[in-house]
Amino acid sequence: MEIKSFILFRDGGTVRIETDKGIFCFDNRIGTKTKGALYRDFPKDDNSNLIENSHDLEKELIESLRHYKDDSIQITIDWFLKSRDIR
C-alpha cells in the first residue's frame, strides 16, 4: 500500500490517510463513541462508513506509514505511529 498523504484534523485529532487503495480515517473526534476506529474517509455521523474487523487493514496502514516521510509533518506522523503501536 502506498501512502499519498497524511492529515491530522483539529477536531480532536482525527487522522486521514490517503493511499493508492482509498482514503481512511482513524476517529479521534471530540465526544466520539468510536475513538480510534477506522473509517473509509471521514467518519459519518451515522457510522455507515465504519470498517468492521479492521485489524489487518490497520496493520497494513501503519506499516506503510512507517515508510512514508514528509519533513513538514514528520513529528506528527511519528506521534501517531507511537500512539497506534500495533503488534
What does this structure look like?
This protein is α+β, with helices and mostly antiparallel strands. It has one domain (3-83). It has 2 helices and 4 strands; from the N terminus they run ββββαα. It has a 4-stranded antiparallel beta sheet with strand order 1-2-3-4, covered by helices on one side. The radius of gyration is 12 Å and the shape is globular.
List the defining traits of the structure above.
4 strands; alpha+beta; 25% helix; 87 residues; four-stranded antiparallel beta sheet; 2 helices
Short description:
This protein is α+β, with helices and mostly antiparallel strands and 87 residues long. 25% of the residues lie in helices and 22% in strands.
- The residue ranges in which pLDDT falls below 50 over 5 or more consecutive positions are none
Give the averaged pLDDT, no decimals.
93
Structurally, how many domains make up the residues?
1
Strands, count: 4
Please state how the strands of the largest beta sheet are arranged side by side.
Answer: 1-2-3-4
Order of helices and strands: EEEEHH
